[in-house]
Amino acid sequence: xxxxxxxxxxxxxxxLACAAAxxxxxxxxxxxEIPVLYDxxxxxxxxxxxxxxxxxxxxxxxxxxxxxxxxxxxxxxIVAAVAIAAIAVPAVLFMLQITVPxxxxxxxxxxxxxxxxxxxxxxxxxxxxxxxxxxxxxxxxVFVLGAEEAAVxxxxxxxxxxxxxxxxxxxxxxxxxxxxxxxVNVLGRFDTLPEWKQxxxxxxxxxxxxxxxxxxxxxxVELCRDAGLSVLxxxxxxxxxxxxxxxxxxxxxxxxxxxxxDPVVLDTAGLKTWISGSVVMMSGAGGSIxxxxxxxxxRYQPRQLILFELNEFALYGIEQEFNSRFPHLQIxxxxxxxxxxxxxxxxxxAYRPSVIFxxxxxxxxxxxxxxxxxxxxxxxxxxxxxxxxxxxxxxxxKFVFISTDKAVNPTNIMGASKRLAEMVCQALxxxxxxxxxxxxxxxxxxxxxxxxxxxxxxxAQGGPVTVTHPEITRYFMSIPEAVQLVLxxxxxxxxxxxxxxxxxxxxxxxxxxxxxxxxxxxAENDIKIVYTGxxxxxxxxxxxxxxxxxxxxxxxxxxxxxxARQEDGGWLAQLALWxxxxxxxDDASVRTELAKWVPEYRPANGNGDQ
Length: 610
Fold this sequence. Notes:
disordered C terminus
């Protein structure tokens, strides 16, 4: 077996430290002049003292750590091992009838602790100073914005990096000015960046405020840009707590950082009680929302997660991800169509899920508007009814339906079909033990079909960036935030509610395009914005509530319950006659009939008029 020479040297060092401490304790006991008799006693007793310490050091795992990264846990292990040795050594000597001065037994452990702990700390300081000196010579100078825990951890990580050299920290908290974080000075407020840039010749800034509000982060980014600095940031709070990344994995500022919202506070204990040990089924598991739901559900340790998806490649992708990231989680990768009642019932019969998240849907507005209207009805309405009825038949406790803000006063097939699916769930709720919970939210950044990837591609090609109308606005949230609120609503739902998420302030798509152009390092003169006109089924403004709806508050500040019109079982039977038909109606017929089932549906004419 190959011997690790570093461990061997560390072990030898500690044994020499024990021997030296033992002899020095005798030396101090007799005022630096050890009598001959005790000189012999000191050397003879070492035969027992050193092996006792050796056994305890190995038993306490003192050699699993690396001296260069010696930390408080390492010191705690040393203290524990030396403390036990301070009891074990006198006990062994007593049994062997070896009489040693009591002051030696007291001084020796203190000296051992000082030598072992001090040498490790000294070695770490020496190595870090050497690395910091190397980084100072080689790394690019950089400012850090924010003087909280994230900044402290970042400075510690970057001290070992040859790429960056932190020359100063800035923070708006005046009480921190003039102080230091790991030897780096806190220089002043954010708005003093230009003068510090001039003094230090810095070209980059790292924003280390993952828990700050999006308003604070946006202001910081704008100040950095105004000062002519290249802006980087640490990972988001969600990414850090999920363990996907570490604080040192800095990246360029992205759109999520500017449009991001305050972190969601979750009932973590309640979610763990609900999901832990349960069988959970996810329809549409390969989509952007379904996949992120699966990732966050996995954190609460379900007994089994059923990934139900029609797209083979999407299912393969999430299977590979989960095998790598969650190797201990039992997953079932099931290909199938939500409209296939036999397949859905087969899965529910075999695995008996207690919770179903229904995310499978056709969601692209223009695609569903022309040529595919009936397919939208079949997938979004009939598919939802199939899964919902199977959930009732197999005793599923809770069914969480992912809806959309486009279901409010819909002007397109997609939104009207999702509103109709909401009504199906509410009608089924009246006679079912299964609790149906519906969650409406708006656009999510980076989802499949989102405008963001399209803008990014257009910018990469040199433009122009196409926007349908200068006044068109949408509500945006990040995928992790949307999914967190879906989970929270699912936990809170008692049955039959439509939860409306707090979407914050609406954003003009044109402003979104300008932000993306600037984030890509261009000016508006470099990349033009071209307006192309509203697409089929598209309206200028999205709404979160219909005219005849109001909301009720919930214990969570970002969730409210919409009081919407509900239908009964008789209505559901009549609807079945329409959606179970075998012929294929044309788009115009679908729109006409859909308006009868969803009275608030007003088809748009493609020019923004309703």
